[in-house]
Amino acid sequence: MFSWVKRLYQTLFTPKNGSDEAPFVWCLIGNIKEQTEQGPEHELRQGTKHFSPGAKIYCMPVKWGDGYENIQVIGLHRKSKKYICIVMPSRHITAWRLQKVYKPFIRQLMAENKGWTNSNQDRETILSMAKSLSR
To answer: How far are the Cα atoms of 2, 65, 80, 93 from residue 62, in angstroms, in the given order?
Structure first.
């Protein structure tokens, strides 16, 4: 392996300062639907107010007892192109799946907000959630 590739890999995927932080977290991932119903008249809209159609959304674990109708999510805002963390209806999300997340910013937000970890228990929970939400 080239030395610069090895250094880059170590920089991206090695915990800093001797911490035992994992290089990834398991996460429930989804995409914003192409068309969503908005407002009392149920008008069709491309994506949502905050996210473009097809935008990748990182979903947080269950926070309250509403049956995962409303979800705290992290995603790139459609206009500012910066990551935002908001609560939105799960009906606007599709293509539920399990994925490893390596992005340091997302991992940091997960840790700060009691989100997913890299444990096998979280992995199994996400798999069952993705299966039930896909129905």
So the answer is: 43, 8, 27, 15
- Using CA atoms, how far residue 21 sits from 6, 61, 120, in Å, is 20, 19, 16
Instruction: For 23-42, write each residue's pLDDT tens digit.
Output: 999 999 999 999 888 888 88
Q: DSSP 3-state assignment of 93?
A: strand
DSSP state of 61: P
CA angle 27, 33, 37 (to 5 degrees): 130
Residue whose structure tokens are 């999300």:
93
Separation between Cα atoms, residue 109 and residue 90, nearest integer Å: 20
Q: What is the pTM of this model?
A: 0.80
List 100's β-bridge partners, or say none: 26
Residue 46 corresponds to which tokens in the numbers above? Answer: 């491309």
**Residue count (the chain):** 135
Q: What distance in Å separates the CA atoms of residue 102 and residue 129, rounded to the nearest whole number?
A: 21
* Amino acid of residue 66: D
* Residue spans per domain, the chain: 27-133
